[in-house]
Specification:
Layout lengths: L2 H21 L31 H14 L1 H4 L18 H14 L1 E3 L2 E4 L8 H13 L4
Antiparallel strand pairs: 1-2
Helix pairs in contact: 2-5
C-alpha cells in the first residue's frame, strides 16, 4: 500500500525531467569543429561565403552542423519544425547575410533565446564551413 505514493512521486519526477529535457534543447555545450585544411580567414568577418562549393568545407561543415546545429535544425538539414528549415535559405550573398547575422548574434523572440550566438564560440572558418554544407543541401 505504501508503494503507491512512491510510484506517483517517481512518475512526477520523470515527467518534470522529460519536460526539462524538451525545453532545454538549446542548453548544450557547443562542440569544437576541426577546420584543418581550410584557408584561414582572419579576424574580419567575410560578407560572402569564401568556401562556396569547396568539397573540404562541405565535409567539415557536415560534421560541424551535425554536432552543433542538427539538434534544432534537423539531421541532414531537414528541420522537424523546431527551427527554420535551412535547406530553403537563399544561396548567394542574401543567404550569407542572414546566416552571418544569426550565427554571430543568435536570435531572441519576445525575450526568449531561440538560437545562441556562436561568435567567439566557433571560428569563422567553422561557421562558413557549416554554411557551405547547408548550401550543398539546398532545395528550392
Amino acid at each position: 500500500m505504501k508503494a503507491a505514493p512512491l510510484k506517483g512521486g517517481l512518475l512526477a519526477v520523470g515527467l518534470v525531467l522529460s519536460v526539462s529535457a524538451a525545453l532545454g534543447h538549446g542548453d548544450v555545450q557547443p562542440q569544437p569543429v576541426d577546420t584543418a585544411g581550410l584557408a584561414p580567414l582572419g579576424e574580419t568577418w567575410r560578407e560572402e561565403n569564401p568556401y562556396r562549393g569547396d568539397a573540404k568545407a562541405i565535409t567539415i561543415g557536415d560534421s560541424g552542423f551535425n554536432q552543433n546545429c542538427a539538434r534544432c535544425h534537423g539531421l541532414q538539414v531537414i528541420s522537424g519544425g523546431l527551427a527554420p528549415d535551412l535547406r530553403y535559405l537563399p544561396l548567394s550573398k542574401e543567404g550569407d547575410e542572414y546566416f552571418v547575422e544569426r550565427v554571430r548574434h543568435g536570435a531572441t523572440t519576445n525575450g526568449v533565446m531561440k538560437m545562441p550566438a556562436f561568435e567567439g564560440v566557433l571560428s569563422q572558418e567553422a561557421l562558413w564551413a557549416i554554411r557551405t554544407y547547408i548550401e550543398a543541401k539546398h532545395e528550392e
